[in-house]
Amino acid sequence: SLREHPEAGEAWRRRFEEMARFRISQSYYLDARDPWVQDEFAGSVRSALEAGPDPEWAPGDVFIVPLLDLDGAIIGTLMLDDPSDRRRPTLVRIRTVELFAQQVTYHIHRTRLHQRADRRAARLQRLHEVGAMLA
Fold first, then answer.
1. Which of 53, 99, 123, 125 lies 20 to 30 Å from 79, alpha-carbon distance?
2. With helix as H, strand as E and coil as C, how does 98-118 read?
3. Coil, helix or strand for 29?
C-alpha cells in the first residue's frame, strides 16, 4: 500500500521527526502494536506471516532505513518487513542492512553524477555544433 500510494516528502519529513523514539542505530524499527504506528500507517503494511517465537516481533512491524545523500538529506528509504525467521532484527542484522543501504546510496549518487555529466557533454556538443555552423 505504501508503494502504491506514496506520501509526499513533507509527510515523510514529519514522520521521521516523530519516529525518533523508534530509532536504532541509523534506522527505525516500527512496532505494529504501537498506537502511533497504527494511526500513522493505518494498516498500510500488511503482513503475510503469523506471530512467531519472538514476542518482540509482531506481524506488521516495519524496519525503515533512510538513504542519505552526502549532505544528509533523505533521498529514499528501504522498508523491510516479514522477516523469514519472524524475529525482531538484531543490531548486527540492522548494521548489515545499513551497510547495504550505504551501497545503494553510493550507486544512486554515482548514477546521478553520470547523468549530469552526460547532460553537460550533450550540451557542450550542441554548443560546439552551433559554433561550427556560425563559423
1. 53
2. HHHHHHHHHHHHHHHHHHHHH
3. strand
Query: What percentage of residues in the chain have a pLDDT greater than 90?
Result: 40
The helix (run of H) or strand (run of E) holding residue 77 is strand 74-80
For CA atoms 28, 33, 37, 42, the dihedral sign is: positive
Q: Give tens-digit pLDDT for 28-62.
A: 999 888 899 888 877 666 666 677 777 778 788 88
**Chain centroid offset of residue 124 CA:** 35
Scanning the structure block, which residue is given the C-alpha cell 521527526?
Answer: 17
Taking the whole predicted model, whether its pTM rises above 0.90 is answered as: no
SS3 72: coil
At 23, is the secondary structure helix, strand, or coil?
strand
What's the mean pLDDT in 116-130?
94
Q: How far apart are CA 111 and CA 31, in angstroms?
A: 34
| Contacts with 35 (C-beta within 8 Å, 6 or more apart), sequence order | none
At 6-20, the pLDDT tens digits run 667 778 788 888 999
